[in-house]
Design brief:
The complex is a heterodimer of chains A (about 325) and B (about 750). With about 325 residues, chain A is an alpha/beta fold. Helices cover about 35% and strands about 25% of the residues of chain A. Chain A folds into two domains: about 120 residues, Rossmann fold; about 180 residues, Heat Shock Protein 90, CATH 3.30.565.10. In chain A, helix 1 packs across helix 5, helix 4 runs antiparallel to helix 8 and helix 6 runs antiparallel to helix 7. Chain A is globular. Chain B has four domains: about 160 residues, Transcription Regulator spoIIAA (2-Layer Sandwich); about 180 residues, STAS domain (Transcription Regulator spoIIAA), CATH 3.30.750.24; about 200 residues, no CATH class; about 140 residues, PDZ domain (Pdz3 Domain). Chain B is globular and about 90 Å long. The chains are: A alpha/beta (about 325), B alpha+beta (about 750).
Amino acid sequence: MRAIVLERNKLVGRRLVRYFLSAGVEAVVVEDPAQIPVALADPAVSLVCADGFDGDAVREACRARPGIRGVLWTAEPVRRSLRHLAECAGINHVLGRKDFESAPRPWEMMMVLRRALDPAAGPPPISAYLDWGHTGFEELVGSTAHRDAVVQRVQDFVLGLQVPKRLGEMMSELAHELLMNAMYDAPVDVNGAPKYAIDRKADITLAADEHALLRLATDGTRVILQVRDRFGGLQRRHVVDGLARGLAGGEMDQSHGGAGLGMAVCHHNALAMFFDVARGRHTEVTAMIELDLNLREVRTLARSLHLFDAVAGPQ
Amino acid sequence: MDPAPAPHQAPTVIGITGVPAPPKLQIDKFADGGIVCLRLSGTIDEAFEGKKLAETIKAQTLILDLGDIRKVSSFGIREWVDFINGVGKHSERIVLVECAPKIVDQFNMVANFSGTGRVYSFYAPYHCDYCDKDDRVLYQIDRDFEVIKSMKPPQRPCTQCGEMQYFNEDPITFFSYLAGQEKFDLDPDVAAFLSSKLSYAVSDSARKLRIDKIIEGRTTFVRLGGDLEKTFPREKLAEGMEGVVIVDVAGIGKIEPAGAAEWRGFLQMVTPGAEALYLTGVPPAFLDKLTRPEDLGPKAQVLSFTLPYTCATCSTTAGQLIDVDDHFDVLKFATPPDMKCPDCKSPMVCAAPEGLLTHLPSLPRPTITGDFKKLVAELRARKVQIKKMATTVAEAAAQQKGGSVWMAFTAAAATVVLAGGAFFIYQSFIANPGKKGPGRGKLSGASAEVRPEWVGSDAALASYCKDDAGGGMVCVGVSGLSPSSDDGVDEAGDGALDAIAGAVAARIEDPAWRTRVGNLYAQARQAKLAAADKDPRSAQARREVRDALRAVAKTLRATSGGAVPAAPSGRYWEEFDDGTENKQYIGFASYTLQPAEVKRLVDGYKTPTEVLGAKAMTVFPQLAWRYPELSRGAVLVSVDKGALRDLGLAPSYVVLEVGGRDVADATAFAQLANEEMTRLKLAGGTLAIEVQAGDGDPKSFAAPIKSDKVDTGGRDTGGRDTGGRDTGGRTGTGNVNVWDRYGGGGSGGREDPTQ
């Protein structure tokens, strides 16, 4: 696989080439969007990457060569990159970075590249999001009362890491949001009709095969929260359009379940979100937050958004 | 994994079986007349019944206390928006108070989260790196508007360790919604309700006593609202009060001891001339403190009072008005009468303390007729449009002029180019020049027949400078109302010197100076001036401005190197007669500076001096706005290397002492520091420097310096040992460098968190 990397900062460009080479991807760095069409002439190129600022150039490349996929990175609020995801199905990744002089997180970049090399491999284990060695717990959640207990357990676990109280509350808020989606919105009957979304206030008890699985793990530098359901009904528009609506000022989403606001809440409470969907088999949403940041940094750091498998555009 | 259940095992429910979980959201309701306060604590999620709750709220003013909201889910947001839209239809006003940071996030994120409500106060998250403590600081839209608007929340002393703690959020994001809100004051009735009934923080001005008066035939009805303080105008209020007097004290908030004494004095003054004296709407605190037989005297009687009652069905605690005559037979047994909830008609439980109930039997049975009761009820309900009675001489004068609000001065320093004039005016602070302020009365004398030409504005507490074409300037200060001409002229002189300092600051263009020196005092100066501007009657605010001006003048004289003339070049005062026995004076003073003197001042304050690898500038006089005790010293503008950096000093610290010797200015600092280092390198010992770092007491920084000649083996033996890093004796000194305690300073590896 060969990739075109449009990066105007030479230092960042060199670092990215290193990451790409490490992942087994050959990278050609260009500093001007005008160089992309020339580089695209190489038939081995299948990936075009750039800052969200140059998202138009990446979209143009995707249009020019069907099958090309785009990766963006940004130091700005993710909503500015959302239009590229909304308008171009070939762009499925936005990687947050600290500033324009920084590269995206290496492990995140590597994960995107490795999975691009082997799209059929499916979602990685939770350990892939963490450094070597981690601790945490997982629970199957099957009722409203159990959901509340697990949400509280998430909060207690995170607070046990000696982090600011507000961080613990953020993670529990995130857990609540993801579990609500997995328990109330995801389950459908044999005809594909929602089973519980009609009344999210109701206490429910899920059948054994409908339970949502929550995993929480930490390696001491970051916390990963993952919620998985077995229905695989989440669609790209739920994520991209919902997030766009939610971040545009919280106009009330009229679809069931309140996806716009839910996505916005998740977005505010996580530094990176990974959406893995195998249609009809599973939806797995993974959220990451770093622990060695103060709240101000957590607030201002650019967010990452990743769409894999069925929620991603055509592979 | 920590307790690691196998995947897909049966769920584990955390909690105790059979014990109902506490509600995720607790809602307490307090009511008083048309004001309802809802206090929400916990999580707003799908369980919050927004629409249903909104239907139960009927209030003219709805106050929402959101201080204890910890989490909000997306579905909770929907419910909340339904709630806020619902109550918006039934309430004239919605005020949101003490909003938690989580709620502020929602304001920023969700359109219409506040509905028609306005945010009066909210908590901002702060963090102290020294003790690793998260804190919340309450901001109020009336008091802190400028800070909110500027989106630059200042550092503050930590409530635990006293070191500086910082705003722990992205200010641009956090204040984005709040900064767009207009400034507003709480309505007096709402402020009184919040402060007196629920002990909320509201601004002082909102709690000032208000007096309404209705005269009908031989009946005088007086309505009081606000706090009962020593400023209670008992003589003015008692003047001419005859016949039947009814005083409605329902709006009385806090009662200070001095205010209680004034109230008792008022009753004593009114009693002889009054046929009868009745108190109505007596709140619990008033009932407890001021309705004992000795307080009421021979004529005063309590017609009605309020006691708090709780309705378990509605979860509402509200003050219920109790008619003494109607319930006398119950009250005499120290028993609160049975009451039913006006909303759901369920029986309510009296929540008054036992001590208050035991006082009830001492209330006399009112001797009134049914018609009189009706009259009292009608008067209480009447919306009077009576002018506020003056509580100060100044207000009385203002009322004579139509009751215009006095704007004392504005805080911002501005440069105004006069059209057609070949000079600039640096307005240090100046009011609306057309307004003279309250209470001056009639001009009855002056120190000269004609007002001098150098007097430009006569707005109280104004000060300004005029540049002449040659580079010199004339600076003028105007005093506030003063008891004597000397006091007035002295204060005006201080104001003129502050104007000189302001004009000098305007001429210093060095960005390092602006960052390290100018920024140190700008906010404090603005805050003090704004406080005095906001409440010109506040003695404390006035005193703070006066003290600061005096301190600025003192520092300017001490550090200017003689560039400022010893005495004003012009003095003038005017005498005012407001109809009372006491005359009042406004003073004016001017200083004339030659071009060379102006240049000396600017050069003196802007030129840095090298000191042991750092750069320092002479302390600037206007720093006294923040540090009124300061009259000398040197401000560090950069600490790149050397002994001072090793010691842990940082830019913007004001150096006060080196080795126990006072630092007069930057030059003296360099000299003392070099001398001390030379001495220590010869004999060994501890380099000790005292600095002003942030607000609070000065701090001592100390580190041992080894002799170049003799290695004493670590622990120094000579000089003062103030607890250097290697002695371990720093605990308990109170003035230790906390930064050092955590391993900073010497290693240089940790940034000073106060910067």
